[in-house]
Amino acid sequence: MARVILIGEPMALFTAKEEGKLDGAENFSRSAAGAEMNVAIGLKRLGHNVSYITKLGEDPFGKYLMEFLGNQGIDTQYITFDNHFPTGIQVKSKNPKGDPDTVYYRHGSAASNLKIDDVENIRMENYDHFHLTGIFPAISNISRATLLYLVQKAKYMGLTTSFDPNLRPSLWENIETMIQRINHIAFKCDVVLPGISEGKILTGYENEVDIANFYLSHGIKVVVIKLGPNGAYVKTQLEEGYINGYPVNEIIDTVGAGDGFAVGYISGILERMSLKHCVQRANAIGALQVMHVGDNEGLPDREQLKSFMESN
What we know:
The chain is α/β, with parallel strands linked by helices. The protein has one domain (about 35-85, about 110-310): UDP-N-acetylmuramoyl-L-alanine:D-glutamate ligase. About 35% of the residues lie in helices and about 20% in strands. It is built from ten helices and 13 strands. The chain has helices at about 35-45, 60-70, 115-120, 140-155, 175-185, 195-205, 210-215, 255-270, 275-290, 300-310, and strands at about 5, 10-20, 30-35, 50-55, 80, 90-95, 100-105, 130-135, 160-165, 190, 220-225, 230-235, 240-245. A nine-stranded mixed beta sheet has the order 5-4-1-8-9-10-11-12-13, sandwiched between helices. Strands 3-2-6-7 form a four-stranded mixed beta sheet. Helix 5 (about 175-185) links the parallel strand 9 (about 160-165) and strand 10. It is globular and about 50 Å long. It comes from Candidatus Epulonipiscium fishelsonii. This is 2-dehydro-3-deoxygluconokinase.
């Protein structure tokens, strides 16, 4: 199987056990969260070799996340600890319908202080693919510089690259800065995976065809636009098309659906599947994820994925 490397900020996630607003919650369950971490877990469950780059606080939550990632079979050799900055924390309400309320405690976190010096010795040439999102470069100027350094190194070493904008406006000083910096990163990657609403914000265009053309005109090879229950639209310089989504019995939790989509698409290209089949797999894993509670609990192994796709 291919070797994939990712960079991001994993967080200790505390989810309320009682339904309602967070300020009334008294009991919480602990788990792990983080967009890039979700993708790493999903790719590992499909049998790929996955390495993760981050920095954790020298605290109980950092130790928990290190153990969690190791138990998932993810290579942690590029995870370092810092005794000056804490591990990021996310707190989420329990909402049976719709998206939960979420609060982040990540300002000044260890991951936001991951410097270029911390990653200079990573041998990117040992990998086939580098995946990144727009979250890590949003948490600090330091993390953004580190991510850009690794993107350039990955491209120089011949890795394919994929980018999920994963917009988090609250992490940026203003919308204009977010758009400029996210697109600056996107233009350096081979594949861009925006949701339709994200594409509208980032390009100013209102439909998926114009959004795709915008990115293709800046040198991106493949644009895949997520259309929610309607599936996805994909376009390259040579082909384009709409790929239908999969039926969902009940939407339990939409968190992690985009990460599941990325898992499906990346695993498809690593296994040299056709463009259509890559997006079909992406749609399938996205659908599976929204039918489960939690950020990564719905990510399937190969047998689960095969069963779902064949039965639908």
